[in-house]
Specification:
259 residues; alpha+beta; 7 helices; 4 strands; 34% helix
Length: 259
């Protein structure tokens, strides 16, 4: 007897052979479906840059803290304490074996706990080793991105109006001030193009004070180049004026009505 493909099916040996072949094909398909490629856990950018040599990437661990219970806590301080404990506990219980594996390979690392992850600099083999771990959820890219320089147009007035500016009024901040809430005691940090610390609207708001005590009040994150301020400026400096503007929006007050 012939089937539609012209094969003789009466022979039991042929039937057994075909059955075994079919089972082997099905088993291979099941194994392929059950074992995803390690590359599927890795951002394409990491794969591309890793092929050329060392790259930097973020090893995001599978163990991420469950913060859902924080919603049932009323006081803000209690919420914050719960979240801090949960996040740090997740990092402390899950990072040691990963860090040990990384340390054994002698690569640069920096652990984090707000997101349970580890920054790593290594080659593609290191990426693969991390991606193959069951306690690693994914490998994220960490490229360095240069922001666009601020664009100055004709008519820009760096001084601005000598008054409470319109955007402050639109959010009714002046009404909040009038009610007695002025932000006294709060410390605000910024990261922008830098800051002109002795600007008339900022100098009395600077934590370093008018005398310019910059220790622990200023850090220059630009370690090469740096525009007009240069790299590693020992005092607050603004390459473009944009940072001074944004800090002025947050805390600016010249004592003469310009807020």
């Amino acid at each position: 007897m012939l089937d539609s493909a012209g094969l003789e099916m009466e022979n039991p040996m042929i039937r057994r052979t075909l059955s075994l072949a079919t089972m082997m094909i099905l088993a291979a398909a099941v194994l392929t479906a059950a074992e995803p490629r390690w590359q599927d856990k890795v951002d394409p950018w990491v794969l591309d840059t890793g092929r050329a040599g060392d790259t930097e990437f973020l090893v995001v661990l599978a163990d991420q803290a469950d913060l859902s219970a924080a919603g049932a806590l009323a006081p803000k301080a209690e919420k914050g304490a719960f979240v801090f404990r949960a996040l740090t506990a997740a990092a402390e219980r899950s990072q040691p074996p990963v860090l040990a594996a990384l340390d054994a390979r002698g690569v640069e690392v920096q652990p984090f706990w707000i997101v349970n992850m580890i920054w790593v600099r290594g080659d593609l083999a290191m990426v693969e080793a991390m991606a193959r771990r069951g306690d690693v959820a994914r490998i994220n890219a960490n490229p360095r991105v240069r922001g666009a320089d601020p664009v100055h147009t004709a008519g820009d007035d760096p001084g601005g109006p000598e008054a409470v500016e319109w955007n402050i009024q639109r959010v009714n901040a002046d009404d909040v001030w009038a009610a007695g809430t002025t932000g006294v005691g709060a410390v605000i940090g910024g990261q922008d193009t830098g800051y002109l610390w002795n600007h008339v609207a900022l100098v009395n708001k600077y934590r370093g004070g008018p005398a310019g005590s910059h220790d622990y009040n200023w850090h220059d994150a630009i370690h090469s180049g740096g525009g007009v301020c240069g790299a590693n400026s020992p005092f607050p400096c603004d390459d473009y004026g944009h940072g001074t503007h944004t800090m002025g929006t947050m805390v600016g007050d010249d004592g003469a009505g310009n807020q």
